[in-house]
Specification:
By secondary structure, this protein is mainly alpha-helical. The chain has 5 helices and no strands. The chain has one domain. Its main location: membrane.
Length: about 130
């Protein structure tokens, strides 16, 4: 049962932070230049000093670490659908809350079917 809570938490961390990373990196400028290494290190410097991007990124990566440790004891066929469906739904809801376009009726229907399917899967496996 603990694994299920951790998998939901991972899905939430991944899903909520994806739109935040997208929004935080929207203003990052692209560096022009011929040297690939200079551009790479300038991008890293800007990314590392932009807290709007770095904090969601670190939370996202902490979700990955939690997922890694949870997979030691969780059933893989159980872990992947739960985590991915929660991440998808959290991404959609968070993006909508941050001002992205409102979900269309088909998107809401699809999300509802994902929730229903995941709930049926959880009930069947527990």
């Amino acid at each position: 049962m603990d694994e299920m809570v951790y998998l939901f938490l991972v899905g939430l961390l991944w899903g909520v932070t994806n739109p935040l990373i997208k929004k935080g990196s929207a203003g990052v400028s692209k560096f022009e230049g011929s040297n690939v290494f200079v551009r790479f290190f300038m991008d890293i410097k800007v990314f590392a000093t932009n807290w709007k991007c770095m904090i969601p990124f670190l939370l996202n990566q902490s979700g990955s670490v939690l997922y890694y440790f949870t997979l030691k004891s969780a059933n893989l066929t159980f872990a992947v659908p739960i985590t991915n469906s929660v991440a998808f739904l959290a991404t959609a809801v968070t993006g909508w809350c941050l001002g992205e376009s409102a979900p269309r009726p088909r998107t809401i229907l699809g999300s509802s079917l994902i929730v229903l399917g995941t709930a049926c899967y959880i009930l069947d496996k527990t």
